[in-house]
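Collaborator request, handled under Task 6.
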Amino acid sequence: MADWLAAIILGLVEGLTEFIPVSSTGHILLLGHFLGFESSGKTFEIVIQLGALLAIISLYVQKLWRLATRWPFDPEARRFVIGLALAFLPAAVIGFLAYGFIKTVLFETPVVICVALIVGGLLLLWLDRMKKVPAYLDADAYPMRVYFLIGLFQCLAMIPGVSRSGATIAGGLLLGTDKRSAAEFSFFLALPTMGAAVAYDLFKNRDVLDFSDIGLIAIGFVTAFLAALAVVRLLLDFVSRRGFAPFAWWRIAVGVAGLIGLAATGGL
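Structure tokens returned to the collaborator:
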């Protein structure tokens, strides 16, 4: 396959899967494995995540600006910023301490990704069908305890295939949030989490980063941005109407297909 076509496919998959509970990392790693696509120092895979992140920033720019300018003197804005920081803290600490193990062991084991996709899909099906009246309907007003515990759930996503958004949404549902606000909070939590992860990845790989394929990186970046923009615009209404079951079944299908593909190619 031509590299430019692989760049479009991977960028499209990154944008479509980053903010839905199916694991963008799991999809990108599995696709890269089967397409035989891998950039030096994973520069391509790291940078295209910024395209998806830019989609969140562009859609929520007014709210982000309001938070940035009003938090020093607005109690509600300050409360949300503190809650976001609490939710980000566990991933920042564990990600820093376990970075080497995550990148050299978990990210290099496609079987782990497939199993995580399947198990996560089954759990998401269970949560989606759970009959529980939500106690918290506004992501701006969760109790501080809920923010922090959602952050702990997010740490499960350090296992590729689990899904960052899936872990935060699942945690939110278990803690009493409704589906829509849980999905929206996962958007905001993506900003510090993904931003810090990409920055740290770039720093750790600074000696092997290769931007010689800047054209391919640009293609992947723009494709990821446009795809993520469409997903974020539609996701909250979709989740409110349909729940998370469609994503759960997709996870299971991809995980099973991945295991079959690995078995057929001697990867198991």
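The cover message to the collaborator said: "Residues 86 and 160 are 23 Å apart (CA to CA). The chain is about 75% helix and 0% strand. Please let us know whether this matches your experimental observations."
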